[in-house]
């Protein structure tokens, strides 16, 4: 999907922004958050070619590293402390992006990536670090969580200018696997979350890729993919961060 927007702060011209995430990456049924109330949120942008760019979400997990989805490549700028995409400052350059070595495509899993910033960032009122928590074996079905991002507010709609969040509920993995079995496998390295009998529906969608799934105040997932947006029969699918705890630690330890 291509959306025209100004990127003058980044590249001094108008470009088309490609908004990735499997088939869907929006904040469906969400509301604007209080400005800077999620200070670990990162807005990631990258150039595909001379006239096209892309944007994703991410999470600042330490002073030099941002966690996001592997399918968000390429990334060349990271913006922190952002509420409005149109008022985001100069951003921080990217030293390198390191996708999980087993990542091939979004639907085969391992959709996780670490982004090393060119310089360390200092925590401020609007910029905070949110490290991954101690890993857990799984997240129970019916756990209440929220997802945040600058994605579309409806399937096929426009991307949000301000940061949005929406409450979602973790879906039993076997149920989720049954829902998706005609399309893609749901593995133990994935979490599913959506809504039950809610109007409007709740989900992530285009533009939210790489953003956080937060459960009980803890970072548990990264927005990966879905089929459509806000469809009860196809909940959003997230990379389960606990399954990648050792990879995250080892990559950071050996890559700076």
TrEMBL record:
<feature type="domain" description="Peptidase S1">
    <location>
        <begin position="27"/>
        <end position="253"/>
    </location>
</feature>
<protein>
    <recommendedName>
        <fullName>Peptidase S1 domain-containing protein</fullName>
    </recommendedName>
</protein>
<dbReference type="InterPro" id="IPR001254">
    <property type="entry name" value="Trypsin_dom"/>
</dbReference>
<dbReference type="InterPro" id="IPR018114">
    <property type="entry name" value="TRYPSIN_HIS"/>
</dbReference>
<dbReference type="GO" id="GO:0006508">
    <property type="term" value="P:proteolysis"/>
</dbReference>
<dbReference type="InterPro" id="IPR009003">
    <property type="entry name" value="Peptidase_S1_PA"/>
</dbReference>
<keyword id="KW-0645">Protease</keyword>
<dbReference type="GO" id="GO:0004252">
    <property type="term" value="F:serine-type endopeptidase activity"/>
</dbReference>
<keyword id="KW-0720">Serine protease</keyword>
<keyword id="KW-1015">Disulfide bond</keyword>
<dbReference type="InterPro" id="IPR043504">
    <property type="entry name" value="Peptidase_S1_PA_chymotrypsin"/>
</dbReference>
<keyword id="KW-0378">Hydrolase</keyword>
<dbReference type="Pfam" id="PF00089">
    <property type="entry name" value="Trypsin"/>
</dbReference>
<keyword id="KW-0732">Signal</keyword>
<dbReference type="InterPro" id="IPR033116">
    <property type="entry name" value="TRYPSIN_SER"/>
</dbReference>
<feature type="signal peptide">
    <location>
        <begin position="1"/>
        <end position="24"/>
    </location>
</feature>
<dbReference type="InterPro" id="IPR001314">
    <property type="entry name" value="Peptidase_S1A"/>
</dbReference>
């Amino acid at each position: 999907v291509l959306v025209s927007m100004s990127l003058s702060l980044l590249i001094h011209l108008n470009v088309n922004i490609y908004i990735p995430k499997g088939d869907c990456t929006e904040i469906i049924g969400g509301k604007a958050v209080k400005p800077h109330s999620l200070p670990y949120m990162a807005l990631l942008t990258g150039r595909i070619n001379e006239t096209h760019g892309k944007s994703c979400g991410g999470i600042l997990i330490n002073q030099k590293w941002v966690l996001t989805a592997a399918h968000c490549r390429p990334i060349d700028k990271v913006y922190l402390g952002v509420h409005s995409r149109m008022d985001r400052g100069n951003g921080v350059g990217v030293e390198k992006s390191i996708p999980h070595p087993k990542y091939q495509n979004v639907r085969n899993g391992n959709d996780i990536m670490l982004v090393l910033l060119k310089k360390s960032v200092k925590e401020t009122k609007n910029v905070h670090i949110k490290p991954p928590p101690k890993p857990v074996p799984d997240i129970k079905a019916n756990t209440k969580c929220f997802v945040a991002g600058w994605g579309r507010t409806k399937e096929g709609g426009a991307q949000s200018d301000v940061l949005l969040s929406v409450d979602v509920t973790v879906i039993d993995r076997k149920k989720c696997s049954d829902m998706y079995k005609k399309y893609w496998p749901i593995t133990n390295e994935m979490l599913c979350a959506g809504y039950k009998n809610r109007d409007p529906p709740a989900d992530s969608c285009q533009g939210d890729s790489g953003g956080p799934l937060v459960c009980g105040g803890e970072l548990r997932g990264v927005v990966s993919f879905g089929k459509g947006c806000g469809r009860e029969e196809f909940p959003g699918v997230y990379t389960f961060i606990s399954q990648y705890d050792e990879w995250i630690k080892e990559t950071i330890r050996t890559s700076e």
